[in-house]
Protein: Endonuclease V
Amino acid sequence: MWLEIRLKPAEIVPCGTIFVGVHNTCPNGTIFVFYASPSPRSSWIDIISVIDSNQIVGLRKSRSSSSSSWTTRAQELLRRRLILEDDFTWKIPTTTTTTTTTTSSSLEDEAEDGKKLLMLRYVGGVDLSFSKDDPSMACAALVVLDLQADATLNVVYHDFTLTHLHIPYIPGFLAFREAPVLLDLLDKMKRDSNPFYPQVHAKLMVPFVGFGLACHLGVMADLPTIGIGKNLHHVDGLTQSGVRKLLEAKENCAEDLITLTGCSGRVWGAALRSTRGSLKPVFISVGHRISLDTAIKVVKLTCKYRVPEPIRQADIRSRSFLQKNQGVIKKECD
DNA sequence: GCGACAG
DNA sequence: ATCTTGTCGC
Structure:
C-alpha cells in the first residue's frame, strides 16, 4: 500500500517523488519513506517509527561510523538482529575432491550432544531480470538446488513473480528495491510448507554490501544467507581494480581467495576466483546466521561456473520467464 | 568537498 | 540491470 506524493518544484529542490507506506521490508511499527530525486545521488530512503497515528519519530539516513557508506535507520534496526556466526543445525558436505565414495556418504551425522545433524542439501538462490521495453517491469525468481553427494546441483524448485518496481536502484539501497518481491516468494513457499523450503539445512544466496540485500533478506526471512556479487560495490576504500591487483600479486599462490579488508579495518567479505579459468572473481559476503569461512565453503560447493549455481539458475530462469511472459502481460493491459 | 557505488 | 556479434577453446 503506497501513498505517492508528487512534489511541485517550489516545494523542494530538486523536485522528485516521495513514497510513504507500509512495506514488507519494514520492521513492525514502522513506515517506509522513500524520496526519489531526479538525481539518484541525492535520493534517500528511510523507515520512520510510528508512536501513534499522529506522531512519528526518527528520520533520514545517518552516516555510519564504521565506514564511508551510508545506512538508513531501517538498516540499523535490522542490523541489531543480524547474526554473524554459524547458526544452523546442518553440516557442510566435504569438498568434492574428497568425496571418494565414502560408502555411507551419510545424509545424517551424530553431533557431540547426540543430536542428529542433517547434511546441507537444499540451497536457494534469487535474482531479478528486467524488461528492456519497460524498465520498471521485472521478473523475480527463487530457485532451490539439491546439493547431493554427487554434486549434480539439480533444480528442485523454482517460482517466479512478474512485478512492477516503483523504487529505483540506488547503490547501497538495493534491498529496498528488490527485497519485497523476494520475501513474497519465500513466504509463499513457506506457507505452502514446501519440503524444499531452504529453512533448516539450506541457504539463500543474494548479492550484498555492508548491510545489503543478503543481510536484509536473511533477517527478514530468518534464513541463513550469503551475499554474492558479480561486481564489487566500492565501500571503505575497496575498489575492483585494487582487488584485481591483489589477486594478480597472488597469481601463483594455491588459493585464489583474498579477504576484503577496508581502510577502516573492517572485513567486508572475500573475493574468490571460483573457476580455474576465470580471472574475474566473485565477491562473497556474510548475510545472516553464517560466518565468512562457512559462506566461502558453501560457495565453493555450488560453483560449477564462475557464478554460484543457485544465483546462475535464478538469473537464467528469471530472464527466460520474463521473455516468455511479458508479451502476455502487455496484451492483458490493452 | 567531491566522486566513487551491488542491480 | 539491459542491449548486441562474433570468437575462442574444451
Notes: The first helix of chain A runs from residue 73 to 79. The helical segments of chain A are 73-79, 174-191, 213-221, 240-249, 292-301, 309-333.
